[in-house]
Amino acid sequence: MLSSSNTSKAKKTSNKREHTPSFICEIPLRVTRRQEQILEARFEAGRQLYNALLGEAKKRLALVRQSIGYTKAKKSTNKKERQAHFAAARQAHGFSAYSLEAFADEVVRDHKKIRRLQRKQDRQRRANNPDCYDEKGRVIKGKRPTKKSRHQWETETELQELYRREAAHRKTLHGQLANQVMAMGTHIKTEKLNYKAFQKTFGRSIGVRAPKLFFSILTRKAESAGGKVEEFSTYHTALSQVCLCGQKHKKKLSERVHACDCGVVMQRDLFSGYLAKHVQEGRLQVADANEHWQGAEPLLRTAWQQAYNPPASGRQGPFRTLPSSFGTFRSQSGSSEKESLPEHKAQDVVATAQASARACESAKV
């Protein structure tokens, strides 16, 4: 006869669920060396982003648990009050999915941190290579500092990581801006610029923003979409100085509004963009620009005024905030007062085509 212990063991063995054997089939992904590098870079970027968001979420969770609202919620017995206290604590410390998305928004270059690391790197280089500098701290000609300490290697690695993040994020922002431009059209006209002259004038700011990189990305995307980017010389066009009446007024860079004696008052960049539309074979077609100006002027004026009067919802659209160099809005009289926006309705292309077809058929009959 079985004992009680044996019966309990038998019950346990009988109740134990039997598992069927399972197999995992691993199939290697056959890629080229270039594709492997791209995949590894994207996986590494995703890993770093996940770790950064996870670390920030843990910090905010700790702040939420230390807050007064969290303590009140733990002590409260009313369900609605507990939910209200928890929600207030999360909102106060930004512990939500929306706040974490805003945390991963545009990255601004930390000039102070980079400059501090650069000075630290210079001190380490001088301390590791004293024979390469004279008594006044000047570099001795013909000698190169080759010795590096472990701390100097760590400083250089940290600097390289900051530069890498900045370059990757800049490329992403350029791609987004190029997509926004491509959504308006694939045939793009722009002035031919000297980017080396920009470097001499604006210095390091050009290296941070990289306008030449944006232009190359835009050109590649336009050609892939079947369009093109057409450049024309500013020497023959001078769009910021020419008016529809044929007069040419040389303006300072600080003058952001085009105001001519013939009555044309328009924001300088918007007016230049309109004239660029009528550039053919490197020459401005003034007659063509005059012919279409009557219909384009209210549209440009509306765009100019809406740039300074955003909608009530506060949403600025896909583009960034306008720079101060955009100029102040002026009415047709030349004053900076507000004027009512004219309403513009899109033309019904289908109805127009049908009407023209009916007219042709009636003419044939």
Task: Describe the model.
This protein has 365 residues and is mainly alpha-helical. Strand 3 and strand 4 form a beta hairpin. Helix 3 runs antiparallel to helix 4, helix 6 runs antiparallel to helix 7 and helix 12 packs antiparallel against helix 13. The longest helix is centred in the first third of the chain and has 34 residues.
Topology:
Blueprint: H1 4-15, H2 33-66, H3 68-75, H4 79-92, H5 97-103, H6 111-128, H7 150-182, E1 187-191, H8 195-202, H9 204-209, H10 211-224, E2 228-232, H11 234-237, E3 257-259, E4 265-267, H12 268-277, E5 279-280, E6 283-284, H13 286-308, H14 349-364
Parallel strand pairs: 1-2
Antiparallel strand pairs: 3-4, 5-6
